[in-house]
C-alpha cells in the first residue's frame, strides 16, 4: 500500500473515483475496515462497565471514565491529527494512527488498576484520533461527489459495526474469563481489521500537500463557526453523540439491576447496533431524495420516541426503544457528516475535524455528566435529561430544514 500522493505537486488533479472503479471498491473496503478497527477499540470497555465496577471496586461513574477518557483524548487530538494530515497525507496519518492504537490496546489487559486503565484508554483515544480525523476528508477528496454519500454511509456503517464488535466480543469473553482476557480478545480482532486496511487502501490521487501553519489551520476552523449551518451541525454532533454514549454507558446497569440479565445477554443487546448499520447506509439515499434537513428532523423524532420507551419497566418495550434510538442516531450522524462535506467547499479537513471534535467532546463530557445524573436521580432522571438534550437537537434540525427550504425557494425565484 502506498500513501504518498502522486498528484501532490500537480495542478491538474485526476477525476474522483466512481462506483465501478477498482480503486473505488478498495477505498470503500479500506474505510469500512478503518471504521471497524477504530470503533472496536474505542468502545471496547463499554459493555464491561458493570464488571469493572464490581471487580475493581469503583463507582459506575469511575468505570465509565474508561470510555469518556478515550473519547475525550480523541477529541483533543483530532485537530492536531488533521493538521498533520495536511502535510503528510491522509493515508499516512490514518495508517500510523490505527497501528499505534491497536498495538497499545494489546497492553491494556496488563493494567494494574482502574486509574492505569483509564490513563491507558486515554492514550489509546489520542492515538485513534488520526482515523476519524481524516477518513471523511479522504473520501471527500478522493471520490466523485456523485458517489460520496453512499461511501460515507458505508464508512459510518463500519463505525456502527465496529462499535458492535467492540462490545459483543468482550461481553462474550466475560462469560468464561476475566476482563483482562476480554480486552485481549478485542485487541486481536482489531488487529485483523488493520491488516485489511494495509492491504486495500489505495494511493491518494487528489491530495495536495500543504505547509504546516498552525495559526491558519485554527483560523480556518474558527471561520467555519461563522457559517450558521456548519455551526448547527457542529452542535448537532455534540448533542447526539453525548446522548448516545450516555444511554449506552448506563444501559447495562439498567439491564442487570432491573431485569436481572447476565453479562452475556447485556452484551447481546448490542446486536441492536445492526439497525444503525442499516440506517447509516440508507441515510445517504434518504438525504438525496428528501433533503438532509428533513432526514435530521425525522430521525431525531424517532430518537425521542426510542429514548422515551426506554424508561419503561418492561424489558420488551425497552429493547424496542433502544432499537429505534440506535437506528435514528446513526442516520443522524451519517446525514450530518455527509452534509458537512457538501457545505464546506474550502478547508474541508478543518470542517470535518471541528465536527468530530464536537462529536467526541460530547461523548466525553455529556457521557461523564450523565453518570452523575444517574447516581443522583436514577434511570428515570437520566432519561428525562437525555430527552431534554434531544429536544434541543430537534429545534436545531427544524431550523436547518427551514433554512434549506428558504434558500431553495430563493434560488428558484432568482
UniProtKB/TrEMBL annotation:
InterPro entries, sorted:
MFS, MFS_dom, MFS_trans_sf
Gene Ontology terms, MF aspect: transmembrane transporter activity
Which PROSITE patterns does the entry mention? MFS
Membrane topology summary? Multi-pass membrane protein
Q: Name one GO cellular component term.
A: plasma membrane
Keywords assigned = Cell membrane, Membrane, Transmembrane, Transmembrane helix, Transport
Task: Look up the domain of life of the source.
Answer: Bacteria
Localization, UniProt = Cell membrane
Where is this protein chiefly located?
membrane
Kindly name one Pfam family recorded for this protein: MFS_1
Segments spanning the bilayer are 27-49, 61-81, 93-117, 152-169, 181-201, 230-250, 256-274, 295-317, 356-376, 382-402
Coiled coil residues, start to end: none
| Record-annotated Major facilitator superfamily (MFS) profile domain positions | 26-406
Can you tell me which family this protein belongs to? Belongs to the major facilitator superfamily.
**The name this protein goes by in its record:** MFS transporter
The species is Corynebacterium meridianum
